[in-house]
Please model this.
Amino acid sequence: MLYGLEYPFSGHDITQKFVRESTVVHFTCVEQSLKTYFGYYFGGFGDMDAYYSDSPPLIGMANVAGMIDAIHAQVSFAAALSRKVHRTFMWPDTVNIMQKRLNATDNSTILEHHDKQSGIRAISWESAQKAKLPAVEGNYLTNRKRVSRNELEIVYLDARAPIPTLEEEISRLSERQVAMLDFAHFSPPIQRPSLGATIGDGNEDEQENKQLRREKDSDNVEETARWLEDREKEWLSESFDKMGYKAYSQVFLDKLKKCVRADLPTACLGACEWGV
Model:
């Protein structure tokens, strides 16, 4: 039976019921590199080859936020750290992202803020596979609970700590403890676009009033976008670079790619927009 993506993947319980009652789920319209990821993400493989019951040592990410370059920097740093400490990287399930898009109609700038955007819509999963980064799906721990009675302990670590300190703290953890890097306040704060107040006193022509309002809002969005980009560039130079994070992350800064749709003027495929 053929389904659109909206219903079977519209919520956790609905998705799990759909997967349990299906013999095969074929993600026909999902790009090839994500078919396996989606299969794991939605619980389609179960505990095949003790994938969940024999968990590897893990490292994950929490509170990943920023514009796309800042998010790329954070994920690359976590990936580099995971390789250094010999832990499997748990893909960021969601990120808090401010996207800068181009309105193809009038070439104006659009800022879109997403509190919980899928991690695969920010950084390319395919590039991680090509880089041979040992990684599991973003909700690995949730999927694991269905097949294992023994929960793993999550230990939160401040990602802003000196790198040697992080390596030392992680080395002290057991294989049953998940090192969760907390990136809160790691990158510049996100500011929602502040649009101008309504223009006009009600006596002007309504169409002209709307046009003036659009122009004013567009100017404010452009200004906000430039402010955000300047803050991000300053942070990448003054903090991420000079504090040693960039050099440490360089291999994965080169190998991990930003999602090609992260800032496109058109939305991603619906397949990438689940709300589980």
In short: The helical segments are 12-20, 32-41, 68-84, 125-130, 140-145, 163-171, 206-241, 245-255.
